[in-house]
Each structure stands twice: as C-alpha cells, then as structure tokens.
Write a structure and sequence with these properties.
The chain is an alpha/beta fold. The chain is built from 22 helices and 27 strands.
Length: about 625
C-alpha cells in the first residue's frame, strides 16, 4: 500500500525563495487529466506541440492534442484496461509518447516509462515488475525487444506499435498499431460517449498516476510512485518562480522516463500552455535547437559541456581575427561575471566594453548555438563544475542550477541574480531540509513520493517519519544555499584515513574540453587515481590540428601526445587541491562509456562500482607501478 503523504510546511531554519501564489488554473486542477483538459479548453487552436519529420516541422494544436489523447484513452478502455492497471511506454521522444501517457491516465491507468536505450532484459524487468497490461513500443527496434521477452510476461495482454514501418506483415493477435488503437477508441466513443468522463471523474488526486523507474545506479531499477496530487503539487513551487506564458518554447530531447523532461516539457506545458518542440532524433539536437531557439532549456551537465566543447572547436577552426575577437570578448564576459551573478550592473567602462563584445561576438555565438532567446537556462540531474556555469554566464547565457530527485521532484533552485558558484541554490517554497548525524540530506515537501512500488522495506528505509533520505551528503551555508559533497555511497576513505568526496574533483576534470568522463579511484588505497574517458570530438580535432595520425578513439588513447595532453589537464585540476586529494596517476580508456554496456545509467550517470570491477586490472596496474 502507498505510504501516507507527509504534510509539507515552510522550511524551518533554511531560507526560502519568495513564492508567488499559484494561479486559479492550478488550484482547480486536482488531477493531471483535469489539468490537461482545462488547458485544451483554454488554449484550443494555439500550438501545443511541434515535431520534426524528414526535416519539416509539423504543428499540433491543443485541440488536436486532445483528440489524440481522447481516442487513445477510449482505445485503452476498449482493450480492457482497468483503473489502476499499468501501461508501459518504450520509445524515444515523440508526440505519441504524450498521447499514450495522457491516454493512460485519462482512462484511470498508471503510466510507466522505459528508457529507449534499455536492453530487452532490462525492459522485461520493468514490464514484469510493474505488471503492465499494455506495452507501447516505438518501432521495429523496440518491437523486437518486446517480442524477445513477451513469453515471460504473463500479465502482458497487448503490444501497441507507434511506427509500424517494417512490421506491416506481422500477424499476431497480441499486436496492433497505434492508429488501429485510435480507430477502436473512436468507435467505442460513438457507442458510449460518456464513458471516458466517468473514468476521469472516478480518479482520486491521491491515486497513483505515474511509476518512475530509477535508472539503476546501484542495482535493479526501483519504481517510484507519484500520485496526481504529488506530481502536480511538486511542480507548483518551481512554476511559481517564473513568469511563464504561452509564447515560451521548449525543446523535448531528454528521455521522458526522466523526471526532469517529464516535468519541463510534459507537465509544465499543460500548466503554462507553452509549445513543446520534439527534435527529429537524439543526434540532431544541436541542429534542431538552432531552428527552434527556445526560451527555456534544461540540460544535464553533459549537454552543457558539449555546448562548451562545440564553441571551443569552432573557435579553433576560425580565422585568427575571429579567434582573437572571441578571446577578447569572452574575457570581457568573464570580467562582467561577478556583477551579473549577483544581479548587479558592472561599472560603466566595463558595460561599454560588454556592449561591444555582445554586438561583435557573443550574441552571434549564442545564435549559432540556438541559445539567443533563452530567458531561463538550467542544469541539473547531476553535479556540474562551477567552471562550466561561469563559462556560460561569460557567454551571456544565464545558466542556473536545479536540484531534486525522482522521489521528491525539484526542490532547490539558484535564485535569479543570486548565483553562488559551487553552490546549487535555495530551497523552493514549501520544501524542508535537514541533515542527520552523517550529514545525509533529508527532505520533505509537496512532491514527495508515495513509496516504492512493491517494496515496503525500502519505503520504510528511505521515508523516515515523513522525511526522504536523499543519499546525498552536504550542508546549507550561512545564506541557506545547498552545498553538495557527493553521494553517501561514493564517499572514499584512503588507507591513510583521508575522507574523499569524489564528485567535486571528477566534475573539475570533466570541465576540460578533452575529458568526457572521469572516475576517481582511491577507496582503501594510499592515494587517488582516475579512469579517464576522452571526448572523441574535441580530442580528434586536437589530433588533426596537431598532425597526430590516428585510426580511431582506441588509437588516440594510446598516443603519447594525447596522454601528455590529458596529463596537462589533470595537473591543472590538481593545483586546486591539497597533496592528499590530487590525482597521482590515471589511465585513459579506449572507448566512450555506454549504457548498453551497463557502464552508464540511461541518464548518463557512471556506475562507479561496476566500472571499478570491470577495470580492476587497470586500477591495480597504477598502484603496482607506484609501489615499484
């Protein structure tokens, strides 16, 4: 049974951001379907979604959006879906993801997202654990995964395919296309037009709405239960800090299984009425971004690091005049940073220089990246190096940090005009924090989970008298800003008794344009070492411009010139740390980490324990070398 939702109150002892009262529309919407249909009624023929197919942007109005959701909901009822039953969705981002999600919830079901990069066995685990009755799959690739494992899923009744290209000749009573589902739904609506309204009227705000399965950093994914009430109320403190409007544009590109994308493009789109733009493929993000030029953009640290690398590569390929202009303009931007971070205006001479830098270089660079209209830019879901945040402020992008978890929603945000580099921000209104004796951060607030699906033991362990144990270590400074030290499970104790939090050092290494990933090693060891993953794009460009021949990434990783390049980057970082906290040795891995090899989670977080086991020989080699 779901745990009772703790009553949230104003934070005790921690400064809060000033809250704006929620608008009337939000107060009236007690469930996600109610919110959606109110938005359809209000916005009608305004554009809700855009999706790109074969290079052409297609628009979907809120009315058309509603028609698709309604047909999908009726179709699921026609398939026999009962209130409270689960529906799995395995797909890259596309409008049908939204239709299936809302169609499920409108029919009283529970939506369960699955990462499109998951293997067939990982998909099987989630579908089996959630006891899903219907499974939406995107295309032939995802359909093949479902067919591999369906015989081991006794609860599964239907497989629905969004894009049946290549599957036209499949004749299976368990399989139907999404278009066929919609047709069945429209037929049922003709016979029983009031059926859907009856289903939605029976939904209680505390009913389970969404099962978010965690990406499984330390073990099998856990099903986080979020009700209609907790998901809606959890987003209101974040929504209240902005002046959102229907003219805003967002880009849908991260997995919709993830709380961040589900909040920013799916839920907030209904709350605020802005337009969500689906990129064509994951590989076309940077190209599509320039065409959309969003006003709001949320990215994980790796996305922003890629932006930074693209700027630096572009400047290396530019003429000497452009390189000189860029370096000078960025230097002006950096000089303005301390003032802009505090929300202050720089002195007049610096302001005049900045106007010149903006006109000649910085504004053009932002336009080339598709970031020139950004009013709200955020980074979250993992720690980010302060150097990355500062770079974008120098470039003119007002990048701020968010903190939250699947179990809590967004709970901390950098306030506008009060950026503190190296510190995440202040708690959002209605969210409380405290730390226990081990400095683990505990949180409670309106977005708190109901519990873990079919796991009462873990629910009791993580929900302590209404407080959620985050697994993060940190503290709140004298201004009330959250400072993270790292994950409790990742804390290292060297053989000399030195406590080391690896994340901050790793983030500084990853701030280098040449380093994609860095995994610190040192638990029980006399000193720290690191496993380094090259950024193939930037290192390949470096090799080409320095006449270093290479065949592939593995070849690059062995080149003495590249080893010296990375050693120089490591030494730059070491200068910021004491002797005991410096990286004494490193090894460059021959390939990029991959979620397919289980080295990364689907949200691109490193599976540290798995990597240390997989590359145990490399790690031991570094320490044997030191002993010798």
């Amino acid at each position: 049974m779901p745990m009772p939702r703790p009553t949230a109150s104003a934070s005790a002892g921690v400064e809060l951001l000033d809250a704006l009262p929620p608008d009337q529309e939000e107060r009236e919407a007690a469930t996600i379907p109610a919110l959606f249909w109110e938005r359809v009624r209000r916005s009608g023929n305004k554009v809700a979604l855009r999706h790109k197919d074969y290079g052409i942007w297609n628009e979907v109005t809120w009315t058309e959006y509603g028609e698709q959701v309604r047909a999908c909901a009726f179709g699921l009822i026609n398939l026999g879906l009962q209130p409270g039953e689960r529906v799995a969705i395995l797909s890259e981002d596309r409008p049908e993801w939204f239709y299936a999600d809302l169609g499920t919830q409108c029919s009283g079901g529970v939506a369960v997202g699955i990462y499109a990069t998951n293997s067939a066995e990982q998909c099987r685990y989630i579908v089996e654990h959630s006891e899903a009755r219907v499974w939406f799959v995107e295309d032939q690739e995802q359909f093949d995964k479902a067919m591999q494992v369906r015989d081991s899923l006794p609860e599964l009744c239907w497989i629905v395919v969004f894009d049946p290209k290549g599957l036209r000749r499949v004749d299976d009573p368990m399989v139907l296309t999404f278009d066929a589902l919609l047709e069945q739904g429209r037929s049922l609506e003709q016979v029983e037009p009031e059926l859907l309204e009856q289903r939605m009227a029976a939904i209680d705000p505390d009913d389970l709405a969404i099962l978010f399965y965690t990406s499984g950093t330390t073990g099998p994914p856990k099903g986080v239960m979020q009700s209609h009430r907790s998901f809606l109320e959890g987003v209101r403190p974040f929504r209240a800090t902005f002046d959102w409007n229907q003219g805003d544009e967002v880009v849908v590109y991260m997995p919709l299984c993830h709380l961040g994308e589900r909040t920013c493009s799916f839920l907030l789109g209904m709350v605020c009425g802005y337009t969500a733009n689906f990129i064509e493929t994951p590989d076309t993000l940077f190209r599509d971004l320039k065409e959309v030029s969003p006003t709001f953009f949320f990215g994980v640290p790796r996305t922003w690091e890629k932006f930074k690398a693209r700027v630096e590569i572009g400047m290396e390929e530019a003429t000497w005049v452009k390189r000189w202009s860029y370096k000078l303009s960025l230097k002006v931007g950096y000089h303005c940073c301390p003032y802009r971070l505090r929300g202050e205006s720089p002195p007049l001479p610096l302001r005049l220089l900045h106007v010149l830098a903006e006109f000649s270089v910085l504004r053009k660079l932002r336009k080339r990246l598709g970031l020139e209209r950004l009013q709200n830019a955020f980074v979250g879901a993992a720690p980010v190096a302060p150097e990355v945040v500062e770079f974008f402020w120098a470039l003119g992008v007002p990048l701020r940090e968010l903190y939250g978890q699947t179990e809590t929603g967004i709970t901390v945000m950098t306030p506008e005009g009060k950026v503190r580099l190296g510190k995440i921000g202040l708690p959002l209104p209605g969210v409380e924090f405290r730390t226990d004796e081990e400095q683990e951060i505990l949180c409670r607030g309106p977005g708190l989970l109901q519990g873990y699906f079919k796991n009462p033991e873990l629910t009791a362990e993580k929900l302590r008298e209404g407080w959620f144990a985050s697994g993060d270590q940190g503290y709140f400074d004298e201004e009330g800003y959250l400072v993270l030290d790292g994950r409790v499970k990742d804390m290292m104790i060297t053989s000399l008794g030195r406590n080391v939090a690896p994340q901050n050092l790793e983030n500084m290494l990853k701030a280098s344009s040449y380093i994609m990933d860095a995994v610190l090693v040192g638990d029980g060891k006399p000193f720290l070492t690191a496993l380094i993953v090259l950024d193939e794009e930037t290192v390949s460009h470096y090799a080409q411009t320095h006449n270093i021949p290479f065949a592939n990434l593995a070849d690059l990783a062995r080149k003495p010139e590249i080893v010296r390049l990375i050693d120089g980057e490591v030494q730059k970082v070491n200068r910021n740390w004491s002797d005991r906290e410096q990286v004494r040795d490193f090894r460059i891995l021959n390939w990029e980490l991959s979620s397919e090899d289980e080295e990364l989670t689907p949200t691109l977080k490193v599976r540290r324990f798995f990597l240390c086991q997989k590359y145990a020989d490399l790690i031991e080699e570094m320490y044997r070398k030191a002993e010798a």
